[in-house]
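Kindly draft a polypeptide, keeping tokens residue-aligned:

***
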Amino acid sequence: MSRRALVGVLSACLSTLAGGAVAGKVPDEAKGTAQWMIEQERAWAEQSCGKRWVLSDLLATDFRGTSPKGTRYGRPAEEPTYDPATPFHTDCRLLEADVRFFGSSVAVVYGSESSVATLSDSKHERRCLVWTDTWLKRNERWQIIAAQDTRVECPST
């Protein structure tokens, strides 16, 4: 086989393989799942404001995340004890979440959120994150297996 023909065949094969991994519009049958994922992402964002604990259900046991400071973290072993004296953030908001499916068992949610933190001098600071969460469906259950968070400058309002 000539070099040109071989390159053509390889290109066609790679295009076919890549086409199966490209995310497209959310299929009709997955729209409910996508909306559910967005609500779970909202619940996670609101945890910092003292809302209900959701990570035990959302994060897979083999979950790995990367914090805005670059440190790796795993799934919490248990729900922390709630202490009303512990200062939580306020005004926690999910700003955006976009779900993309890659086949029937992988989804990636690209999103952003903000909250207001109380600083040591009692002043308040709005903090914004952009993030990417990777969801995997195992045993008919969707869970987050990886997360990447980046702190960014908050958009002006």
